[in-house]
Design brief:
DNA-binding, 0% strand, mainly alpha, 9 helices, Tetracycline Repressor, domain 2, homodimer
DNA sequence: TCATAACTGAACAGATCGGTACATTTATTG
DNA sequence: CAATAAATGTACCGATCTGTTCAGTTATGA
C-alpha cells in the first residue's frame, strides 16, 4: 500500500495538533512524536500549512462520517435523529481525548478570512448545516433552515461549554433546549 | 498619572492579540504596533504570559461591564433582559473589529487545563452563567440554573456562528430560540 | 534645580521556528 | 538480483522567538 506513510502522518499529526494547537506545535515535535522523519514530511507536504490543511480535510471527513453514522444508530425517524445530535455529542464529550472542536480552534488560530484553514473550517460547518437542514425538512419542520441553524448553534455552544468546562452537562442542557425547538417547529407535543 | 503606560500597553495588546492571536503575535510586533519599547513591556510584565493574563483580565472586566450595561439599556424587566442578551450580541457581531470571543480563542490556544489563561477563560464564562442565573431567577424561571445554562450555550453558539460565518443572522436565530426557552421556563405565552 | 523614576533604542543571547541538502539505509517491484 | 522508489538521520540555513543588557533620554516632583 503506497500512501500509507502519508496517511499515518496525517492521522498522527491530527492527534497532536488537536491536543496542543497548531502554532504551539513545531515540526520538530511532530518528528519526535510521530517517529516520521522531517524529510519525509516535507516530501509529502511542501509546507506546514499544507499539512495542516490535509489534517483538517481528514478531520472533516472522519468526523462527519462518525457523527452521522452514530446519528443513524440512535434514531429511526428524522425527528429522533435531530434530537440524537445531542446524544452523539455526549459520547464525544465523554471521550478522554475530547478537546473541543478542531475547526473552532483552527478558525481561532488562523483568523484572516482568506486563510484556507479558516475557509475550510467554515465549509465544515456549512456541510453540517446542510445535513441538519435535510433532517429538519424530513422531520416536517415549518422552517427547516431556521431549525437547522438553531440546532447547529446549540451544538457549537454545547461544544464550547464542554471544552471550557463551565457546564456540568452541556449535552443534557442543549438536548432539552433542542427538544423544545423541534417540538415547536414540527407542531407536536 | 502613574500606571498609564501599563494600561495603554494592555489596551493596545488586547486589540492586537484579539485580531491576530496569541502565539501568532510576537513581542517585536507588539513593540512595532504599540510604539511602546520592549524594555518597558518587560518591566511591567516579567513574561509574555503575564501580559496575556493581564489582557484577559482587562477583557473580562470591560466586556462584562459593557455587556450588562447594554442589557440594562435594552430591557426593563428581567425577562426582557434575558432576551436582550441576543440584541446585545447583534451589536457586537456588527462591529467591524468583531473576531469572536477572546476567551474561546484563549482556551483554544492554551489547552492545558492547568494553564492560567485556560482557567481564567473558564472563570469568565462562569461569571456570565452566574449573572444569567440571577436574571433567570428574577424572571421567575422554574429552573433558573438550567435556563441560564441554555441561554449561555445559545450565546456561545451564536458567537461561534458569527465568527465562522456559517449563519447569516446568528443573533436572530438564537434570539428566537431563546424566546421559546424563556417562555416555556416562565410559563408565559 | 536636582534627584529620581520611567521610558527608549539598539544590540544581543540562546532557543526554536519552518524548511533544505545530502548521503545512507530500507522497501518494493520488475 | 538488480533497479528504483521511499524513508531516514543529521547537519545546516536564515528568520523569528522570548527575554536581557545597558547606556542614554525624557518626564516628574520635592
Amino acid at each position: 500500500m503506497r500512501p500509507s506513510k502519508r496517511d499515518e502522518l496525517v492521522r498522527k499529526a491530527f492527534a497532536i495538533f488537536y491536543r496542543d494547537g497548531f502554532h504551539a506545535t513545531g515540526m520538530d515535535r511532530l518528528v519526535a512524536e510521530t517517529g516520521i522523519s522531517k524529510t519525509t514530511m516535507f516530501k509529502h507536504f511542501r509546507t506546514k500549512d499544507e499539512l495542516i490543511l490535509a489534517v483538517l480535510r481528514y478531520r472533516d471527513e472522519t468526523f462527519r462520517n462518525w457523527f452521522f453514522r452514530r446519528l443513524d444508530a440512535y434514531g429511526e425517524t428524522p425527528k429522533e435523529k435531530l434530537l440524537a445530535i445531542f446524544d452523539v455529542l455526549r459520547e464525544w464529550f465523554d471521550e478522554p481525548a475530547f478537546r473541543g472542536c478542531m475547526f473552532i480552534k483552527a478558525s481561532a488560530e488562523f483568523q484572516e478570512p482568506s486563510h484556507p484553514a479558516y475557509t475550510q473550517s467554515a465549509e465544515h460547518k456549512r456541510l453540517l448545516h446542510q445535513a441538519f437542514c435535510r433532517l429538519a425538512a424530513d422531520a416536517g419542520a415549518i422552517d427547516p433552515d431556521m431549525l437547522a441553524r438553531q440546532l447547529l448553534i446549540l451544538k457549537e455552544g454545547a461544544i464550547v461549554a464542554a471544552h471550557m468546562g463551565f457546564d456540568a452537562d452541556p449535552a443534557g442542557a442543549s438536548k432539552q433546549a433542542a427538544k423544545a425547538l423541534v417540538d415547536a417547529a414540527t407542531g407536536s407535543a
